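Progress report, Aim 2. The chain analyzed during this reporting quarter is listed below.
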Amino acid sequence: MTFVDAPGIAPWRDGDRPLDERVEALLAEMTLEEKVAQLGSVWVDVAAADSASGNVAPLQDLFMKEGVDLADRIRDGVGHLTRVYGTAPVSPAEGAAGLRALQERVVAANRFGIPAIAHEECLTGFATYGATAYPTPLAWAATFDPGLVTRMAGAIADDMRAVGVHQGLSPVLDVVRDYRWGRVEETLGEDPYLVGQIGAAYVRGLEEAGVIATLKHFAGYAASRAGRNHAPVSIGPREMADVILPPFETAIREGGARSVMNSYADVDGVPAGANADLLRRVLRDQWGFDGTVVADYWSVPFLAMMHHVAEDEAHAGAVALRAGIDVELPDTVGYGARLAEQVRAGHVPESLVDEAVRRVLRQKIELGLLDGGPLVPENAGETDLDSPRNRELARAIAERSLVLLSNPDGVLPLAAGTAGRIAVIGPCADDPRTLLGCYAFPNHVLDRFPDHGMGLPVASVLDALRAEFPDADLRYARGADVSGDDTSGIAEAAALAAESDLVLLFVGDRSGLFGSGTSGEGCDAAHLGLPGVQGDLVDAVLATGTPAVLVVVSGRPYAIGGYASRAAAAIQAFLPGVEGGAAIAGVLSGRVEPSGRLPVQIPGSPFVTPSTYLQPPLGLRTDGISVSDPTPAFPFGHGLSYTTIRYDALTTSEERCPTDGTVTARVTVTNTGSRAAEEVVQLYASDPVAQVARPVAQLVGFARVPLAPGQTREVVFEVPTDAFSYTSPDLRRIVEPGVIALTAGPSAADRPLRAEILLTGDTVVLGRDRRLTTHARVPETAS
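Predicted structure tokens for the chain:
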């Protein structure tokens, strides 16, 4: 390739040149050391003088060593700067000054003046001091509202770009397989279609605002044995292909994600960071992904330290690059000089280095980092990271995510102007941190900095109840802590319940990291009973006979069926964020109509090995075969409102459809009650006869439908026959002729409408162009 320089402009800085030409021009000038530098990263705590002990990444304290000269680490350049805003509490002004100073040093240190990509966590919002802490991803999934999630992600991305951040390490697309896993709160639930649709929506919001979205954890992480963090994964290739991988494919092809992060876990003995079949054949060859693969924090040295598939850190770097990891995060351990030595020793072809560097340089040019503009906006320090716009989005998601599980006697909503004696009991009532996820900055970082408080205003549920019910006589008793075995407060709480007219009982989780909480990264559960002695508290309160509304504020589903059956009503709140207290109060009062739906089942037993709803017949209750009953207390997709919805009809455009066609399915629903509501209409497919055991029902489409009292509306689903595909015994994804049953209803266990369609023609083998989404629309015409 011949490059003709514009006067005074290096070809890689010439914005009039094609992108690939700019990349190749720069790559051609770089030494091996300069190239491998672009594949590394640096984690510098800009507030080191104020830092505290404790980790925000696994075994962080073993790798982040003080006294290492920054000049040596950035001499030839660097690929990424790690969490300048997210490591310690810094204001936007302090973070911007720190990032600006670091970028200036990076630019000055390498002869091409190449800046670094700045990345941050953004799982529940921009994870930095004072930024809005949105509901957890499990709450996003409970909304069944991709459009709202896209708007939230766009707001998060706007805040990040405003302070000079280029890449966000989200979303988590791990499909839940075991509710005991601590990171369930970070996921989008247990159904691959729902995870893919909500995940792609989030990606779209980030990417359209100019922030690189990072899909994690690729792949199989959430399927670890016994739900233990980092534990081995024992699943077959069909489960991987049909359950684990589809959300990633959807987020890449339909969301436009430009980065993927590997899983820590090994699948059938092969760590993801050493798995070229996964990172190269599937991701790049099958799906056509051309973005970057970044290492989850320390996962490169973990190949030697934890997995023992490499001799040392240098060998680990070689293994990781050969497998397909482009950039080592959060700091350079196995890459850098060690990787250059591996190349010179003939252990790694330099061509693999060139491939990875091309991808990094392409993204830097796409981000405008070589165009000469300011690397951190001049007014970054003035950015309002907890703006009214953010709060409104946080409120909307919190309200739409709350799931009314039961309300058999119509106790809810509480009457307008409710007075009388109301006992507010439980550890989640008066602790605002119980509303937040483990990646929300107050729980993620500020636990280590107690002098900094929460960093932003977060009203507790109790505060919100006082505002919602000003005429009521609210009395509070904690009763028990979230964790621990102290039962000394239960008697007082039960006494308060006994003398009250109504009890509002708040139990659940307090998220943290690596054992500091009951939910969150490294906070796996041995069983699915409520943490600590909260179960004893619930039993004691219910035993008083006072009507009690049970509200579970948690990061995972707990086996509360035995309590819910005795409670006057039950609500599930999946860590609903900074506006969660007001949202819960609004649902209790009826100011907010409950419309959330369960993205995970509520298990029936704390001890039966948990299983999700995606089960073949023998995965369900089998009387006469097994006495172990996996039936959930509340099924996937379940959620009530304060009105009644009737499912009237399900029709299809044709009774027969070719195996490469599209089925039009129409579902009609009517609001037969007296209150307006939003119903989440769910469409499921079943394959009665297949070459492998298939789920009894699997979600293939959904839509939120606003319904006025008495109103009837129709939902039109355009279902591609690709939605009926599965991985055959010879590991090809196929759509085969035969009968498919479509069912519709308000949950996976309540599907009153049914229609059958006969697929005709030859068996179709699907490839890269397979159709991933069922498009749903709700015509304006209504009766």
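The CA atoms of residues 302 and 316 lie 8 Å apart. The mean pLDDT is 94. These observations will guide the mutagenesis work planned for the next reporting period.
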